[in-house]
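FORM 7B: Structural annotation worksheet

SECTION A. Query
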Amino acid sequence: MDVDLKAIQNRIISGFDGLEARQLAAVESVVRNMHRKVNFRPGNTTELVGDAFREEMALFLVVHHALHERALNKENFEYIFKQCLIASGDVDARLNPNQKQAKFDVEGGGYTWSLKTETGDSMSKNQVKVEKFTEALWIRDSLTSEDCARNVRELVIPRLSDYERIVVLRASRAGAFITYSLEEIPWGLLNSSLVSQTRPEIFSKAQRGKKVAKSFGANYFREDGGTRQFRMLLDTSVEKVRIWFALRECVHHGYWTLPGSTATDVSNLSTAAAAEIPRQPDQQPSATYQEELPI
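SECTION B. Predicted structure
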């Protein structure tokens, strides 16, 4: 699609007429910070994140952090993910208009998607933590391991049919930089493990010394009985199902690093290459791309 840059610039300039000094200062700050550099590192697949997706995500991350110091929240991510699918060729990608009927967040690219976010100063290097996998008022009445297993089978597993893929946007800070990683929890692996392993005997309350936890939890393992794939916690304090999924089992779609706070002068923005991008256990070094987004 051809873009008339001169016409766009003229419309922007004409739009300044009538703005007050504080409004002009805000616009100037946003424009200045559109010069942020985004460093991208590919994941172990390009099935989702092609060039168009990568560039669209970088653009929206720059726009977001021109106005905010905090990481994207779930609602922001849902909209941006939809726009990335549109940029990738699915012009009909859409947000879920009615989550009372189905609990997916976005439909597009041939799939329905459940989207989650994770952020924090001390995120695990080994687990993707979904702190709200689903709301669960029934947890208050799950007083035994038998109750837990029955309710997971009857109320959690069927919810997986509302969507086909689960993607988590993780945000971690290192100094002045913030890195966003796009991790996918394999739907088939999660579903098959829940179906085959959910039994009363796997649910228990953790104990440390004489202290016993208030909430039931369960560990789910690989089919060969080896390492743990994920842990499920039925959190009574907030009545939510939480899942901590092994990062090594996830699909790594890519990493975007950029300055995470507003700089007072564009010349103070150092290259994002100085930021450490988290390495994954099964990932080899690969090419990186650095983009300077145009005004």
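SECTION C. Observations
Confidence is low (pLDDT under 50) at residues 263-281, 283-295. The longest strand covers residues 211-221.

SECTION D. Sign-off
Analyst initials: ____
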